[in-house]
Amino acid sequence: MTQQERETHREATKLRKMTDQQLVDYVNNQKEQAGPAKDQEAVHKAEIEELEAEVAKYKAKANKAEAEARKNAENAVKAIKGKSTGGKAAVERFLQELKKKTGSGNGIGNGTIFKLKRILDTMPDDFAEKEA
């Protein structure tokens, strides 16, 4: 017989020799000791659920911030790409400003601006970059 089997046998013998009242007291005592453990388990489960909800909330905020950062980066790239400083875009802006000043005695009329725009339309978009 192993040591564990001997301990089990002693415990069983002890329980068999108890009176009815002793058995009832023993079982009630075991229940009382198990009660607080179950209560603590419920408290721990509630705390875990609370913390998991908080983690989910922070993850949602992080995902939202990440999406917003990605959107801002995309908008910045679009703004940089759309804001041409040379080439056709610059000439187009120049012609628009020049058109505002037609008829002011500078010798440039709508016909000249129209001809310049037609020439500009035939040129490639990156003509200024190729020359540089």
Fold topology:
Blueprint: H1 3-16, H2 20-82, H3 87-100, H4 110-122, H5 127-131
Helix pairs in contact: 3-4
Task: Write a brief structural summary.
The chain has 132 residues and is mainly α.
The total of beta strands comes to 0
Mean pLDDT: 82
Structural class, from secondary structure content?
mainly alpha
**Strand residues, percent:** under 5%
Explain the overall architecture.
By secondary structure, the chain is mostly helical. The protein has a domain at 84-132. It has five helices and no strands. The chain has helices spanning 3-16, 20-82, 87-100, 110-122, 127-131. Helix 3 (87-100) runs antiparallel to helix 4 (110-122). The protein starts with a helix and ends with a helix.
What labels describe this entry?
132 residues, mainly alpha, 0% strand, rod-shaped
